[in-house]
Amino acid sequence: MRQLTEAETKTLFEKLATYCGKGISNLITDSASGDRYVFRLQKDRVYYVREKLANLATSVHRDNLLSLGTCLGKFTKTGKFRLHITALPIIAPHSRFKIWVKSNGEMPFMYGGNVLKAHVGRWTEDIPEHQGVVVLSMNDTPLGFGVSARSTAEARRLDPTGIVAFRQADVGEYLREEDTLFTT
Amino acid sequence: MAPTKSPKGSSKGKAKSAGVRQSKKSTGSAPAGISKRKQKSLALAKPGGAQKTKSKSLSSSSTTKKKRVYTEKELDIPKLNGIVPAGIVKPKGQKKGKKFVDDPESLIAIMSVVNAEKEGRIESKIMRARQLEEVREAKRKEAEKRGEEKAAKFEDTKKGLKKRRKSKHEDVEDVDNEAPAEKPKKQRKRVSFG
Q1: Beta A120-123 vs A2-5: how paired, if at all?
Q2: What is A2-89's CATH number, 3.40.50.720, 3.10.450.220, 3.90.550.10, 3.20.20.140?
Q3: Within a 10 A sphere around the Cβ of A5, how many other Cβ atoms?
Q4: Which of A27, A84, B147, B175 holds its CA 20 to 30 A away from the CA of A180?
Q5: What does the pLDDT average to over B132-159?
């Protein structure tokens, strides 16, 4: 387990910024609970951990440390960062662009499908094309996140079967990817 | 096999004979107190006198070569010709290894840079989308207007044609009507069901 380097931090923040907007600054300076949170790299995964916990975890051997805090995602071998569904509770409160899915679209989305126009209950205005969006149910429960397929204006003219957002991660992965989600 | 053996033997014999001759000559010049064995060795060494000189020259050249060892600075090789490319050379005095970021100030600094970049990109995307939307809207309106105009024109021509046809009919009727002056109109038969 180690801290992130400058380049790694930049890559991580760039990815977070696609979903969060300005809200991510709260991740570092969130002092509501009085605890400071830090980012730690264990093998190739990045964890968002309370600093005290991170300091305690230094006493565990690297090979024996499986996970700590909340896993945000992992660095690929090409140096890019891939967000995992486990990051959803951290991203969702600070997200800038949102799509609310009607109850008839919840299951198709959680089974790994893209968000269709017919399933959209409402969406944030002015979503540009290929922008990170958080998908929520109509009662504001975060279901996952994805990338907008079209801008809001274009999506309005779309037919009901047209794709509005491409799925990146959904809460169904907790079951579908159970074997690989937490293995390092 | 035979031809190879024969020249070998002949050469040996020649060498032997030469050695004997030389030894005979040397015995004449050498001092009397030297044993036969030493004499022989001396005699053998004599023709190799040239060899001695050779070794001397070798040693002298090696000493001169040692003196001519230049350092790289002395050689004045242009930097482009060097083996190490300029890009790979690491600046001196810099710390080796990874540079970790953990303090909140530097994290916030990185975040603000990233945020500004992203914000700019998103804004430009939104602006472009809006402009495109405006252009599209204008085009749509223009197309609608054109369509309406076309439809109006079509209606006009239709009406014109109808009028013309009507007027022609009226003319014909007038001509017909002129001859039988004002006939009482016939009542059409009507059929009603129920």
Answers
A1: unpaired
A2: 3.10.450.220
A3: 15
A4: A27
A5: 94
What pLDDT, in 10s, does the model give residues A123-132?
Answer: 999 899 999 9
The pLDDT of residue B10 is above 70 = no
Residues of chain B contacting residue A28, judged by C-beta atoms under 8 Å apart = 104, 107-108, 111
* Contact yes or no for B39/B23 (Cβ under 8 A): yes
Instruction: Decide: helix, strand or coil at residue A56.
Output: helix
Closest CA to A91 of A12, A184, A179: A12
Closest CA to B126 of A128, A131, A148: A128
Residues 52-111 (B) with a CB less than 8 A from some CB of A:
98-102, 104, 106-108, 110-111
Full domain range(s) for residue B114 = 105-166
| Start-end of CATH 2.30.130.10 domains in chain A | 97-175
Contacts of A29 in chain B (CB under 8 A): 104, 108
Chain A hits for B108, CB-CB cut-off 8 Å, are 25, 28-29
Residue of A6, A25, A126 lying closest to B101 (CB–CB) = A6
